[in-house]
Amino acid sequence: MRQAVQSFLDEFVERLQAIRVTIAAGDPAPVKKAAHALGSPAAMLGAISVDRICRSMQDRSEDGPAVLGPLLCELDAAAARTVAELRGYLAESAAT
Question: Quick check: pTM over 0.85?
Answer without folding.
Answer: yes
